[in-house]
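Dear Dr. L.,

I hope this message finds you well. Following up on our conversation about the binding site, I have prepared a predicted three-dimensional model of the protein together with 3R-hydroxydecanoyl-coenzyme A. For your records, I am including the exact sequence and ligand specification that went into the calculation, followed by the structure tokens. Please feel free to forward this to your student if that is useful.
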Amino acid sequence: MAPLNFHNKVAVVTGAGGGLGRGYALLLGSRGAKVVVNDLGGDTKGEGKSSRAADTVVEEIRSTGGTAVANYDSVEDGEKIIQTALDNFGHIDILVNNAGILRDRSLPRTSNTDWDLVHRVHLRGSFLMTRAAFPMMKKQGYGRIIMTTSTAGIFGNFGQANYSAAKLGLLGLSNTVAIEGRKYNINCNTVAPFGGTRMTQGIMPPDMLEELKPEFVAPVVSWLCHEDCHDTGGLYVTGGGWVSKFRWENTTGVMCRESRVSAMTPETVRDNWDKICDFTNSEHLESNEETTGSILEVLNNLKDSPGTELQHTHSAASTSPSTTGPLSALGVSIGPTDFTYTRKDVVLYALGVGVSTQDEDGLRFLYENSEDFCPLPTFTVIASQAAMMGGELWSKMSNWSPDLTKLLHGEMYIENLAPIPPAATLATTTTVSDVLDKGSGSVLILDTVTRGEDGTDVSRGQWSLFLVGEGNFGGPRSSKVAMPLADPPNRPPDATKELTTGIDQAALYRLSGDYNPLHIDPSFAAMGGFSQPILHGLCFYGVTARAVLATYCDGQPSKFKAMKARFAKPVLPGQTLVIAMWKEGSRIHFTTTVKETGKACLTGGYVDITEDAGAKDMAAGGKGVAVAGSEVFREMAGRLAGDSSVAAKVNAIIQWNVMKGDNTADQWTVDLKGGAAADPVYMGPPQGGRRPDLTLTLAEENLVALVAGSLKPQAAFLSGQLKLAGNMAVAQRLQLLMPPHPRM
Ligand SMILES: CCCCCCC[C@@H](O)CC(=O)SCCNC(=O)CCNC(=O)[C@H](O)C(C)(C)COP(=O)(O)OP(=O)(O)OC[C@H]1O[C@@H](n2cnc3c(N)ncnc32)[C@H](O)[C@@H]1OP(=O)(O)O
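The resulting structure of the complex is given below.
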């Protein structure tokens, strides 16, 4: 294989005036790197300053034909050192954080200054250097960073409280830089070198020092800095030519609570101590997610009430070894999970998807006292999402810990099965019904059923979650259970609507429960590969739903039955959505495009509406539903009454406008309109299409009983036979929420 070279690469090595730093600088320089040799020229305690050390190394590199410049700043002026690289060579590719000092004292004798100086040079200095270099590396999509720790940091060392604490801090810093840099091809690794340097002189015999020359460490650092080395987030202990990789190891652990209701006592810990510390079948957890997942999994396995045996940990004990990776998600089920919401949550969700008080129907969704206040038809997505957000889902996938920074919402189907109450506790059951292998990622298909307090199904949904980078595991590519998408007709759209999202739309939407940092935290978004936080998929889904609701449902959620779409491209907060709609019977096809980019962000989308007549009226610009409803009512009233007196009696109390349904329906939705005080009930034709004040939902037999007077409204309401929505003040005025009206 060809020798490794660093042509066209610019390296900054701190503390390069001697010892290991000099070794790194010389080797990199001899292999073609342009080197900034940084050294303050102080002593090992951080005192004094001289340009001699750096100049000498620069001369050494130049004398063998290499390119180097000196820099004499402290690492606490990290930006100046990086600027030296930019001024002389135009960019920076490699940063070796090597500078360090010692102020060894036993703990009681360590002064604040001893502590602070060591931290300032090692930990703060490396942070400042790395922070200064990172933006340039990110911009060019390439970087190699080295942090220097020590076995004193890993294991501790007598007389080095300050040094060992700073050194282990460097490992934490390195691991985080590795995570944040991964997306930009910026690798960050840590070395714990064992070298005979100025700092170790006097504590080792000379012949031993000779064996531990920097020349026996520098090749490791050079390899980690080379573009062919793709490892990141590693820790390497090296010295005298020996190189090894370190990692964490933990025992399988013991759950010290017998059940969810059991207390944890010091005695339980004592009694299990041997097992807690037993490294048989030990594990090597590699990330926060794995660690959190393990703990959640153990919690998940905890019994509800005391049993016989303590629950041991996850892994081998609780999972089938044959199913690993994404396929282990198949069939995982959670819930029912309760989600309690109030009218405030309904308003917050509406604001989150951009409803404004300036919209024609804005107050219906924004003002809890408005006469027809109700949730948007897509509101139940937040109930089913709340069920998924708790972490239980992932903890049940015992053999798979996907990188959740790469999770994108792929597709969404929602279907309303009953009116969504303005405030309630809903319970959602979630099941992973399919797992697909799309090559570039895996897709989890999750089915949800959301039930109301009385056990009736309020909505069902289907979520497709796209996990970028989790593909190629040998799973199926297509699904039999996925709700299909639908292409729009091949003609210009029947209607188009433009809705602009706010620059803080995601900040607002997240308050409805999706706190995924992808939508607000720039560094988290960067980990997912985005230049800035992106909008929640369900936010622009909700905005699109509003366009269909206003255009084809007369703004009435009761007419909005189901919606499906694919999230095809991300949307940035502040962008404008262009929603193109096509009406085909009771199906409204749509495509949503980002105006600024011309790219479709929702594709294959459709909304199924319940009532075609209303849509036709809307399209015609009229509001004839109430008129049609009145006819239905007249027919119904006559049928119910058998004689006109009962119909007259009903009419004397209220005008019933049947807004929806037909004579064969067994569930009736009846809309009532309150009138002026002197004329408590409005009678007559619809007043300019004014919305009903109150909507009653009840079974036909109950309507019969109500009209006949055998079922009292108050009792019917309390028993759930009669459901009221809208302005409760009108309900009271109409005496539906009071002791039975004398005339009923
Ligand atoms: C438990 C917690 C629950 C919480 C869930 C929600 C949490 C939220 O906070 C998360 C969000 O809101 S993320 C924001 C909304 N989503 C997005 O912006 C994603 C936009 N889509 C993309 O970027 C790409 O489509 C992308 C990246 C998804 C796919 O692009 P590519 O890899 O380029 O795919 P491509 O080459 O076009 O196609 C490969 C195969 O994948 C299928 N596919 C494409 N897009 C898909 C999508 N969005 N959903 C499902 N499948 C999709 C393609 O059809 C193709 O498969 P096949 O060859 O079999 O047809």
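In brief: Residues 385, 388-389, 393, 408-411, 438, 440-441, 443, 464-466, 468, 477-478, 514, 516, 518, 534, 536-537, 566-570 surround 3R-hydroxydecanoyl-coenzyme A (CB under 6 Å).

With kind regards,
A. P.
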